[in-house]
Amino acid sequence: MNPKRVTTDEELRAAFTIRKEVFVKEQGVPLEDEFDQFDTLNGLCEHILVQYNEQPVGTGRIRFIDGAGKLERICILEPYRKFGLGKTIINTLEEIASERGASKVKLHGQTHAEGFYKKLGYQTSSDIFMEDGIPHILMLKDLSANN
Known about the structure:
Blueprint: E1 2-5, H1 9-26, H2 31-34, E2 45-52, E3 55-65, E4 68-76, H3 85-99, E5 104-110, H4 114-119, E6 123-124, E7 129-131, E8 134-142
Parallel strand pairs: 4-5
Antiparallel strand pairs: 1-2, 2-3, 3-4, 5-8, 6-8, 7-8
């Protein structure tokens, strides 16, 4: 379980493959909604990959908006869930946020994952809303509380 910051086109393609499998094929998100202008290596956001037995099996990215880190596109291939990889992804993205000086992070979590995020210190801060036909909630975490 080693997280890796994406620095090459090959690694970025691996992240895209995971996202297509989870969000597009498994959850039915339209392909044109899954990828956006932030899906590059141009510094607009930072992508990570998590490997299991040397294979990329999970990914996520972080963008910075108004001084806060926004965790996005967090997913793990189905056979590799329940190995603690989600926590590894979140922790790595939070480390990146702290390195960049952000004291807060936020995410749009799918409602079925609310308990997972709460265990990691996130607080629900919105009513349920729909994104790509999937119910979500806004969740926030104050990183300065960790120091």
